[in-house]
Protein 1
Amino acid sequence: MPLPPPALRPSATPLNIYIRFQTPNLKSSPPIYNILGEVEKVILGKQDMQLERERKKNDDKYLKKDYKCELCVLGFDLKEIFKKHMKKHDKNKGAYVCEVCQCVYAKQRSLKKHYGVHYTR
């Protein structure tokens, strides 16, 4: 499969990704291709990100887990791992809170990096 034209292969440097997150109604970007022409990454818009989260909530893999973080839509088999994860939501850990999953960070750059979890596929 031939590579798409360069205009359809946006480079997704972290800085570009973070700037795009500031636009709440941004539509999803065209896919980012690797050198083999395979889709490597898609940057999601807010609507698509929310649809992905809804899809995960209804996924059997998530529903079968014993311990669930409904804020992050993550499932865990072990209680200890779940408890460790839930510490990420402790408001005393910092001043920067993810608007999607309420994870808390001490540094703004950590929060910006975290947004990639939600807005890339």
Note: Residues 1-25 have pLDDT under 50 and may be disordered.
Protein 2
Amino acid sequence: MNNISYCYNGMIALLLSVVVSGVVSLLIKPTPPEDLKEGVVNPTCERLYRRWYYARRRTTCNLENVNGSQEAVTMLPLSDTNLHSPQ
């Protein structure tokens, strides 16, 4: 570490903290966006987190029926049709 310029110490620390926090977030259950308090997280980061969270859970979701019961709903599989115009 002595051969690394002191200018890189901050960048290395930032990257290391992002990687470690990402690994820990994947190992434990992430906090649902609804549980985040308003104004605690930067709005841009909150918007990105909501996109990531719902994209991650996109394969299955729970919907409540009118009578209050829940059922699992899955997305339709992607079609393999070729939508390009004939050449």
Note: DSSP finds two helices and two strands in the chain.
Protein 3
Amino acid sequence: MSESKTRVDFNAPESLVERADVVSDLLNRSRTSLLVDALREQVDEIVTDETFRRRVKEAYYTGRIDFETLETIVGREEAMRIKLLGDSLTRDPPVPEAKSIDLPADGEFYDGELPTWTPDEDESDDDASSGR
């Protein structure tokens, strides 16, 4: 199935058009075919550039382009990855809920007396002598 086409009319430097005509004549192809292939190659090169891809992601995340435009530029699979990442970054994290269960008291949990930490005098002397 052939993709639908859009007519494009633009102005180009005369010398460039003359060069394109010579090249298309030598390759035995139409100027349109040559220009379409050149445009496709240039766009393919741009969309694979990391700097451009960052700009596309930023444009999507800030709402300057929609998902369909994103998909057109980077392809369906990459667009879905970008969308899912954006969704995960903007959603609120779930709030943990404590179930109504009976938690053990500290004494029961720690099996008796609660441990406490106190600095050891010898440790601080060792730290000072070792340069810590």
Note: The mean pLDDT is 85.
